[in-house]
Amino acid sequence: MSTQRFTYTYAHERQVAIEAVVKACRLCRAIQSNLTAEHKISKADTSPVTVADFGSQALIVSHLLRAFLQDAIVGEESATLLRQPEQASLKAHVVNLVNRIDPHLNETEMLDAIDYGAQTCDFTQRYWTLDPIDGTKGFLRGDQYAVALALIEHGEPVVGVLGCPNLLLNPAQPEQGQGCLLTAVKGQGAAIYTLEGTRTHSISVAPVSEPSQARFCDSVEAAHASHAEHAKIAELLGITTPSYRIDSQCKYAIVARGEASIYLRISPTPNYRSWIWDHAAGTIVVQEAGGKVTDMDGYPLDFSLGRKLFKNSGVIATNGLLHEIVLGAIRQMIKRR
């Protein structure tokens, strides 16, 4: 008697994730094109948050729950600010914007959806994690940002969708315009979709094996990464091409489709640990495009420990061919500190 091993394809999860990110990108694009001061608020830690952050999280969480009612969801935002009496006009504004995309979501449902992402969960099991707007400062400048969604199982991403509304759909054919989704499923590769959710083509990392021929991408914000140490690593690698500075998980997109071969994120403070939603979707997109993602010690990113990557210091994403060489340059740089 023959036996067949069933392989779960995550086809439904990928489709629902794409639909959710498409909705969120529609909202974010509309808000960014008409951005005013009333769209921006400062959180308790002084980091900026916009009505688009709240609206994006509400749309994504509500869409996921319609398909996967039992799934845990970990998001960056909570509705605490919107529930304050003095923020009634802000709350009404967010509801109005969300209803332009999903007219069936009422105020209570919207607030509950946002707060659903703030609940605790068992991070060792299945859960979704999302950054409703990754790169809020870039968003506010009218520049690059990403809507990032990933499904995690047993501490690793198995599905990822990156919505990049301001990134060229196809760098080789800029006339096709801005806006793309990058999707990946474990073991099934990575692909580009339009912002409407139509698949266009598969993607792969650049086949660069000589470090001096590589280009690396870096954060725009100096607070997010040590630009000085990144420059030292580039010098050790013999890279003379200026870094590709870009906001958000768009950096992962750039590596995944071969526009750069190295993404470095070495924190200016040694004890800093990244939020899981800042890396989950980008990690699987790069990996399924043929690249590699680890921390600066060469260990895989562990998404099973909570809202932060508590075991991982720094993040290194490469085309795979250069990974060990880059790690070696990092070790040299650390010795010279």
From TrEMBL:
<dbReference type="Pfam" id="PF00459">
    <property type="entry name" value="Inositol_P"/>
</dbReference>
<dbReference type="GO" id="GO:0046872">
    <property type="term" value="F:metal ion binding"/>
</dbReference>
<feature type="binding site">
    <location>
        <position position="131"/>
    </location>
    <ligand>
        <name>Mg(2+)</name>
    </ligand>
</feature>
<feature type="binding site">
    <location>
        <position position="134"/>
    </location>
    <ligand>
        <name>Mg(2+)</name>
    </ligand>
</feature>
<protein>
    <recommendedName>
        <fullName>3'(2'),5'-bisphosphate nucleotidase</fullName>
        <ecNumber>3.1.3.7</ecNumber>
    </recommendedName>
</protein>
<dbReference type="GO" id="GO:0008441">
    <property type="term" value="F:3'(2'),5'-bisphosphate nucleotidase activity"/>
</dbReference>
<dbReference type="InterPro" id="IPR006239">
    <property type="entry name" value="DPNP"/>
</dbReference>
<feature type="binding site">
    <location>
        <position position="278"/>
    </location>
    <ligand>
        <name>Mg(2+)</name>
    </ligand>
</feature>
<dbReference type="GO" id="GO:0000103">
    <property type="term" value="P:sulfate assimilation"/>
</dbReference>
<keyword id="KW-0479">Metal-binding</keyword>
<dbReference type="InterPro" id="IPR051090">
    <property type="entry name" value="Inositol_monoP_superfamily"/>
</dbReference>
<keyword id="KW-0460">Magnesium</keyword>
<dbReference type="GO" id="GO:0046854">
    <property type="term" value="P:phosphatidylinositol phosphate biosynthetic process"/>
</dbReference>
<dbReference type="InterPro" id="IPR020550">
    <property type="entry name" value="Inositol_monophosphatase_CS"/>
</dbReference>
<keyword id="KW-0378">Hydrolase</keyword>
<feature type="binding site">
    <location>
        <position position="76"/>
    </location>
    <ligand>
        <name>Mg(2+)</name>
    </ligand>
</feature>
<feature type="binding site">
    <location>
        <position position="133"/>
    </location>
    <ligand>
        <name>Mg(2+)</name>
    </ligand>
</feature>
<comment type="similarity">
    <text>Belongs to the inositol monophosphatase superfamily.</text>
</comment>
<dbReference type="InterPro" id="IPR000760">
    <property type="entry name" value="Inositol_monophosphatase-like"/>
</dbReference>
<dbReference type="InterPro" id="IPR020583">
    <property type="entry name" value="Inositol_monoP_metal-BS"/>
</dbReference>
